[in-house]
User: Which sequence fits this backbone?
């Protein structure tokens, strides 16, 4: 038979599937994939259940239900003072994942270059390649993950069409500083390019730091697609409700991609996320505070086991250097080893790299889990490495 798609044939099963299967096989505590082990707010879930029974279960409008688009516009105003026209500038997608794909599709032609910052959320470069565009990688280096300014400006060239910016950043927990954002905005403007801002962790920021959307910087309002996710903001990752805020011309192009990819997403869940976005400030503050406590808990625990933990300013994730343990093997071997032998699963950092030369002595642990689960994971690791 004729060969199938060449590019898809070249990529394997995602590491999350591989590690989660291994975790199940060994009854390991899964700190691999980033999903909370408790459900989000009861009133949001109740709103979804009520919405399922209110007789509005047919195709919702292609750009999203009015309630959610209004709520997204209101949240933009409330958190960032962004004035958004909910009818013309907000599109609801099937999760942040679809939002990323349609935002890339909205601006890229085959052969265009897109700047991606490594380590990166794994779908970015496959989606860019499926469009026929070309990733240009700029690498951040641990332990501080500072943006290499001159490398970034060198990466911008005549073929550059866009940059993907993920802040707060998965996997390394970096929150881009105001200075770094200003530098990126200058480049985006001066090279007449676009920014796809993956801000799904916008409300998961610690230590009193503030998430600043690139879209709020001078000249960026019309060049930016800002992506949020109800899954992350309400600890309901299975819901897959994403939203894109972008100026009208960009939104029109985003919607043309969206209408041909998924067209819509479940109306009941959309209406429930609208209820969530209207929750009071205390909800958003406590979401971040509770996660910060868990970050501190796992950081202390992993430190006590003998790993060196890197600072993490946001997201669900913490990076740890396992070389002080004297383990004989790379990060993939380490993550397999702790799953099989200690009963704890993490994700090898090198899977978040697209180009050769990734560091091989870091593992990413998700801490969006119950405190007793984190304690148990730490105890297992401590027992294993003490033995
Ligand atoms: N962007 C980043 C950086 C993520 O980590 C994730 C989820 N792991 C997503 C987007 C996808 O969001 P959603 O689940 O809403 O599709």
Assistant:
């Amino acid at each position: 038979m004729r060969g199938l798609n060449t590019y898809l044939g070249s990529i394997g099963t995602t590491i999350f599937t591989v590690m989660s299967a291994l975790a199940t096989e060994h009854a390991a505590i899964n700190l691999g994939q980033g999903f909370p082990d408790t459900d989000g707010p009861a009133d949001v879930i109740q709103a979804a259940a009520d919405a399922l029974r209110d007789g509005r279960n047919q195709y919702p409008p292609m750009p999203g239900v009015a309630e959610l688009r209004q709520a997204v516009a209101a949240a933009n105003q409330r958190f960032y003072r962004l004035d958004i026209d909910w009818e013309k500038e907000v599109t609801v997608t099937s999760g942040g994942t679809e939002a990323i794909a349609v935002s890339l599709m909205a601006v890229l032609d085959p052969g265009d270059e897109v700047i991606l910052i490594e380590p990166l959320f794994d779908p970015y470069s496959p989606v860019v390649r499926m469009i026929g565009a070309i990733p240009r990688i700029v690498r951040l280096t641990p332990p501080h993950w500072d943006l290499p300014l001159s490398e970034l400006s060198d990466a911008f060239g005549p073929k550059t069409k866009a940059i993907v910016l993920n802040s707060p950043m998965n996997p390394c927990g970096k929150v881009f500083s105001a200075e770094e954002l200003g530098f990126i905005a200058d480049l985006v403007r001066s090279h007449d390019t676009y920014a796809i801002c993956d801000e799904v962790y916008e409300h998961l920021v610690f230590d009193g730091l503030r998430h600043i959307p690139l879209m709020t910087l001078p000249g960026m309002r019309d060049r930016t697609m800002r992506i949020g996710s109800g899954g992350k903001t309400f600890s309901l990752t299975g819901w897959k409700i994403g939203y894109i805020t972008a100026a009208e011309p960009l939104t029109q192009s985003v919607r043309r991609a969206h209408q041909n990819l998924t067209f819509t997403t479940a109306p009941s869940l959309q209406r429930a996320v609208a209820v969530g976005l209207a929750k009071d400030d205390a909800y958003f503050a406590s979401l971040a505070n509770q996660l910060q406590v868990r970050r501190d808990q796992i950081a202390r625990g992993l430190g006590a086991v003998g790993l060196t933990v890197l600072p993490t300013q946001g997201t669900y994730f913490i990076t740890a250097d396992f070389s002080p343990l004297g383990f004989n093997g790379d990060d993939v071997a380490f993550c397999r080893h702790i799953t099989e032998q200690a009963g704890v699963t993490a994700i090898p950092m090198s899977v978040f790299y697209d180009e050769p030369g990734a560091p091989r002595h870091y593992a990413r642990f998700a801490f969006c889990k119950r405190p007793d689960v984190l304690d148990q994971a730490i105890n297992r690791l401590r027992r294993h490495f003490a033995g």
In short: The chain has two domains: 6-39+282-386, 42-279. The two ends are 53 Å apart (CA to CA). The domain at 42-279 is CATH 3.40.640.10 (Aspartate Aminotransferase; domain 2). Residues 34, 95-97, 121, 166, 170, 198, 200, 229, 231, 237, 240, 242 surround 4'-deoxy-4'-aminopyridoxal-5'-phosphate (CB under 6 Å).
